[in-house]
Amino acid sequence: MSLAEFVRALPKVELHVHLEGAMAPRTLLELARRRRISLPAADVAGLREWFRFRDFDHFVQVYLACSAVLRDPEDFALLIAEFAADQERENIRYSEIHFTIGTHWQNGLPIDEILEAMEEAIRAAERQRGVVLRLIPDIVRDVGSATADPTLEWAIEGHERGIVVALGLTGREAVCPSEPFAGHFEEARRHGLHCVAHAGEHAGPASVLAVLDACGAERIGHGVRAIEDAGLIERLRAGRTPLEVCPTSNLLLGVAPDLAAHPFDRLRRAGLEVSVNTDDPALFDTTLSREYLRLAEAWDYTPEVLAGLALAAVGHSFLPDAGKAALAASMREEIATLAERHLGRPLVLQGLLGAPGR
């Protein structure tokens, strides 16, 4: 019986993954050649070597290079189509995808046409693959107000089209404040958008408190450094505010030295709502199945715990309540079949959507 086979087949939900950071090296090379953009490497092996990140600034450099090769609406449609194929292979039924439209606006691209192309590709992915994708356009703290307004406008338009679920906030939280964007998140809420924010990754608990108080964040991207503040842990637990945890990303970008030191298990056992995510799967050479298996190996998680994490992510999602219930019911039924097939025994899962298990 194989836990690895069970995890690979496990129906999953992903809530923290960046579209630009999911670009396969081969696609980056092809688009760069098409646009006559120079890269530090001329083949996939060279790019993977370039992706060995020295620090967060190096990561940002690579991330911006991936963004720079996207020049036409068709490029974004291609990226969505390839992303959907990857999610289907991983049996990820529903994904909420961070996307930095402001960078492309700064590059002079027609962001209204990008929205139309992405909408068409998202609809096609759902028809052809049964994969549901929704977008979270991010304001970037580092850029200040320059791109915040067009990002908000794009998010509102995308929400009206049914493909955007939230407004996000990203960038260097250690040096750039979140408070200047409070008005943008207030306006987003007025238009029915949810609010999420990166925090507690390269900055401590104060950054998490800032996005809770200033931006009304309903979920925290990363948030792992909340473990440093008992009062914040209690607030997150009492408010049932989910953390979108990305273990391999945290290791490669220096947030934790190794998995044994990573706070995932301490956060989970403290009663916090946590989900498992890849962040930038192509850049970090990971998949969601690998993330689950690494956690299982590090802390001897049972199949019940892993399945509970997958189901809990449904509850953390921004799907409507009816959509959550339908997806959870479908996943629970499939998980029962998979357990018999790959583990030779039934699983006992608690709660409507599955509990993380403590």
Keywords for this entry:
358 residues; alpha/beta; TIM Barrel; 8-stranded parallel β-sheet; 17 helices; 8 strands; 53% helix; disordered C terminus
What does this molecule look like?
- The protein has 358 residues and is α/β, with parallel strands linked by helices.
- It has one domain: Alpha-Beta Barrel (TIM Barrel).
- The chain is 53% helix and 13% strand.
- It contains 17 helices and 8 strands.
- Helix 10 links the parallel strand 5 and strand 6.
- The C terminus is likely disordered.
The name CATH uses for the topology is TIM Barrel
How is the main sheet built?
8 strands, parallel
The average pLDDT score comes to 93
The stretches of 5 or more residues where confidence is low (pLDDT under 50) are: 352-358
CATH architecture descriptor name: Alpha-Beta Barrel
Query: Which H/E pattern describes the elements?
Result: HEHHHHEHHEHEHEHEHEHHEHHHH
